[in-house]
Design goal:
The structure holds 2 protein chains of 2 kinds. Chain A contains 7 helices and 9 strands; from the N terminus they run H-E-E-E-H-E-E-E-E-E-E-H-H-H-H-H. Chain A has helices at about 5-25, 55-60, 170-195, 200-230, 240-260, 265-290, 315-350, and strands at about 30-35, 40, 45-55, 65-70, 75, 80-85, 90-95, 105-115, 120-130. Helices cover about 50% and strands about 15% of the residues of chain A. The longest helix of chain A is centred in the last third of the chain and has 38 residues, at about 315-350. Chain A is of the alpha+beta class. Residues about 300-305 of chain A have low confidence and may be disordered. Chain A has 2 domains: about 30-130, Sandwich (Immunoglobulin-like), CATH 2.60.40; about 165-350, no CATH class. Chain B has one domain. Chain B is about 80% helix and about 0% strand. Chain B is mainly alpha-helical. Chain B is globular. The mean pLDDT of chain B is about 85. Chain B starts with a helix and ends with a helix. The chains are: A alpha+beta, B mainly alpha.
Chain lengths: ~350, ~220
């Protein structure tokens, strides 16, 4: 049987294993990757080729339906649908002579629905141009897209540009959460040291800071890999990336400070004070300054935030366990590191 | 009232010590003048946006050099003597106030020399003076506190730079942003909000420093 005090360690590992399996294996929902061409004119018969992601156009067969939809709710159904293969399909629309809105260029949303894949949406898929209104009245077969199919599969949402990198939510973000918890515990142990003067608290603060930096580096690397795929470069000199490096520099300085004192008691006292002071600058550094400037990072400047509308229920089922799992695992790493530091200190005392 | 009395006494002590050992303060003044001279020799013509950054960077380096000796004198027996007499918070407050005044004078000197060698890009004098004060206070709090941490080590000046530069970034970013406004480089309606954030950061660091200093001071 597992000892009572070890349950949290095992649950941390089990949660991380679950996150790796579920987070990497659950497929993305089918979606529309691109439309070619993405523009057209009023009154013409528009033929477009749709490229899907994780779609099964051939398999869907007769259950396929497609619409072009305007913002005011009006939509036209596709006149003809030819599936070339599972991922490519030709659609033909008869665009009405009089477009339903008053602007010259109007963006329309493409909706595709089938029994095998469920519903896929691409906002602003096609830009339609209307130079002048045609006076003759015409009967436009307006329809209302409805009776959407639900294929009942468990999937993660498909987002253009993000694609498969949406899975980084289960690694990058929880690592950051874990890092903040670890730094917080380092501060708590520093405060404990200053109040009680217990040498073990000092070692604990050091161990938590070390694992915190380790998590911070992993968070930085996972973020940079994600940025390469979505922003186009590992490093974009984005304010969030810069402030992260500054935060890590602050904690790197902690170890320089540790190394430069001979007397263990003096070292412990100075490092505890610096650790608390450094943590209090993290708050403006990570949570105030980045909000004042434009950033590419999700959560600012009109980018999708990590909030209620960006996590669907399936993602929540993986994301919350990931936060808890990585945090518990960080605590385990810290306790191992603490025991190592304590043994090292014992050996020094014996020598 | 008694607190204020002690702080003023300590402040007077700082001024007296500085006045008696004039070599340190004249060294800093000379440091400022030579830096400015090197800057103008190499840059020749300075654009306002470069001026803005350069001004604060120079002040940052001047501050590190001026503050590092804050606690160097307070070593050995004299600390023991102070320790029996004084409240540590009074010591820190007096040092912070003294260093703020010193930095304010130094920043005015840098500004004056910039005007003397080149021209004056500052359009909003009141705002600029206000952030000189807030900046001097923020620098003074951070550097004085960290100087007290590194005073006991052998290589305090390198250590102070390594510790303080990442920590000073929130303050210096706010300063450059608001001062860009005082130079009319950007039009921003949120300048009062930025000032409030700067004041909040200054006060946060000052509060934490005051809480922690008694623990470091005891030797």
């Amino acid at each position: 049987m597992i000892e009572k005090g070890k349950i949290w360690k095992f649950s941390g590992v089990i949660l991380i294993v679950y996150v790796i399996i579920a987070g990497l294996l659950i497929p993305l929902k089918s979606g529309i990757e691109s439309v070619e061409p993405s523009y057209g004119n009023a009154g013409e018969t528009l033929k477009i080729q749709v490229t899907g992601y994780n779609t099964h156009f051939k398999e869907a067969g007769n259950s396929l339906r497609a619409w072009l939809k305007w913002d005011n709710g009006k939509a036209i159904a596709a006149a003809e649908m030819v599936a070339l293969d599972e991922r490519r399909m030709n659609l033909t629309f008869s665009i009405p002579n009089n477009l339903p809105e008053n602007t010259e260029v109007q963006a329309v949303t493409l909706l595709i629905d089938s029994e095998t894949d469920g519903t896929s949406v691409l906002p602003s898929a096609i830009f339609l141009t209307q130079t002048e209104k045609v006076l003759a009245t015409e009967e436009v077969p307006w329809v209302k897209p409805e009776n959407f199919s639900n294929n009942g599969q468990i999937t993660f949402p498909f987002r253009n540009i993000l694609g498969e990198t949406i899975r980084n939510t289960y690694f990058h973000v929880p690592l950051w959460f874990g890092m903040m918890f670890l730094f917080l515990f380092a501060v708590i142990h520093s405060i404990k040291y200053l109040r009680k003067g217990d040498a073990e608290s000092d070692l604990k603060a050091e161990a938590y800071t070390q694992t915190g930096i380790f998590y911070g580096l992993l968070g930085l690397i996972t973020g940079a890999l994600w940025a390469k795929n979505t922003w186009g470069a590992y490093w974009s000199w984005d304010i969030k990336q810069n402030m992260t490096v500054v935060a890590l520099l602050i904690y790197a300085a902690y170890f320089i400070l540790r190394a430069s004192f001979e007397d263990p008691e003096k070292r412990a006292r100075v490092c505890a004070a610096y650790g608390i002071f450094a943590f209090s600058t993290l708050i403006p550094l990570l949570y105030v300054i980045p909000r004042l400037t434009d950033s590419l990072h999700p959560g600012s400047g009109g980018n999708p935030a990590f909030g209620s509308q960006d996590l669907d229920n399936t993602m929540r089922m993986v994301f919350y366990p990931a936060v808890i799992g990585f945090t518990l695992f960080g605590f385990w790493l810290s306790s191992l590191q603490f025991r190592y530091l304590r043994l090292q200190k014992l050996r020094e005392d014996v020598d | 009232m008694k607190d204020l009395h002690f702080i003023l006494l300590l402040l007077r002590k700082e001024f007296l010590l500085e006045f008696r050992t004039r070599s340190a303060i004249s060294g800093i003044f000379l440091y400022v003048i030579s830096t400015l001279f090197v800057v103008y020799e190499t840059f020749v013509k300075i654009q306002p946006n470069v001026w803005n950054t350069l001004f604060w960077i120079i002040l940052l380096f001047v501050a590190v050099n001026a503050m590092v000796k804050s606690f160097v004198q307070e070593k050995g027996n004299r600390v023991l003597y102070y320790y029996s007499l004084l409240n540590p918070s009074h010591v820190l407050i007096a040092k912070i106030v003294y260093n703020t005044l010193l930095l304010l004078v130094l920043s005015l000197l840098i500004w004056g020399l910039f005007i003397f060698f080149g021209d004056n890009p500052v359009k909003d004098l009141g705002l600029f003076l206000l952030i000189l004060l807030l900046g001097s206070f923020g620098f003074s709090v951070t550097f004085t506190f960290l100087a007290s941490l590194v005073a006991a080590s052998n290589q305090s000046s390198t250590l102070l730079a390594v510790l303080s530069f990442p920590l000073i970034i929130p303050i210096i970013l706010m300063l450059v942003k608001i001062s860009a406004h005082a130079l009319r480089l950007i039009q921003d309606t949120a300048v009062s909000g930025d000032l409030a954030i700067l004041v909040a950061i200054d006060l946060l660091l000052c509060g934490v420093a005051l809480l922690l200093f008694p623990f470091i001071w005891r030797d």
